[in-house]
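Handout, section 4.2: multi-component inputs.
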Amino acid sequence: TETGLQPETLPADPAPVAPMRDLMSKFDGLIAERQALLDSGVTDPFAIVMDKVRSPTEAVIKGKDTILLGTYNYMGMTFDPDVLAAGEAALAQFGSGTNGSRMLNGTFRDHMAVEQALRDFYGMSGAIVFSTGYMANLGMISTLAAKGEYVILDADSHASIYDGCAQGNAEIVRFRHNSVEDLDKRLGRLPKEPGKLVVLEGVYSMLGDVAPLKEMVAVAKAHGAMVLSDEAHSMGFYGPNGRGVYEAQGLDGQVDFVIGTFSKSVGTVGGFCVSDHPKFEAIRLACRPYIFTASLPPSVVATAATSIRKLMTAREKRERLWANARALHGGLTQLGFRLGTATPESAIVAVILSDQEQAVAMWQALLDSGVYVNMARPPATPAGTFLLRCSLCAEHSSEQIERVLGLFAAAGRAVGVIG
Ligand code: PMP
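Output:
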């Protein structure tokens, strides 16, 4: 026979078939927890549907006009007429999808155009676009740091950074969130010879706090490490050219790799890495999450290219976004809410609540009164905290911010979060 087994060598009395193990039973705890939440009568915070989206700041949820205060649409580009026109033209000219990898048939005119827009935006020689920001981190981290080398990351890093570490073969070392001292200490304990990649984020998305990148990059360099900074939550509104926290802290030219996404300020979907490294293009030949997946649809890269070019000169939007962040942060502080940062450091304002029950009650009260915020809970949040995460948009009007503050005051008093 093909297997080389002769019928007479098979056991006469085969062992009984093993019982089927239900691999889904490991989720029983999660299913029960979610059911208990729903049984308490609240809307499922993780199953919201936008029936209509009227603008970057307004949608219809369950038939109700709702102010969006929990999206990453920082610069309000999703309804920009030039962005929409670019997407529509590309859709008509190039069709709805690429049907292939960037490596083979999946590179169209606008994939080249968006990479050029990124080179221009960041003033760097290299740009590689991935299908999402998640995949950019997954691909870059797992490809840059190989077996016997080290990735050193902040303990509060985004899941895509952790998953990039898990996908690769390097040794992983964590340091205490935003602690320059701990970073220095951990790097100091590593052997001198192997390659090292320190992974940082400009803005940490749960609390909205900014990293001391200047000190951290200096420490990394002193230990011979290369640096990757994820600037997902800063693109468009930090630094003279909107490049991110690293630019705002005077580090242009000192960060080896910058990761970003199209899903926040750019207003569509996709991810990227930019770098000045002379050998950067080699990533395209070795990076599995770049190679073994389909490229972004032509309409998506066309909207991204147009949006990125507009972000280069979006001074007014930047100013409005910062004014909105200050107004919301100041108003919530005055009302007595406990926030993730003492001052407005980013476009994220996190309201810290004592437990899941309080967080869900507050979230529900806000939704019922017409404002949507993100509910965030462990394991996404640091130190087991429950958060209502507000993120601002340049297109929020002062009237909307005022209205939101009034609704927070009412909900906070009803739920007993504030006096
Ligand atoms: N990095 C950070 C810091 C993020 O917060 C996110 C998404 N929230 C990503 C990467 C992934 O981006 P994308 O949505 O493009 O996958």
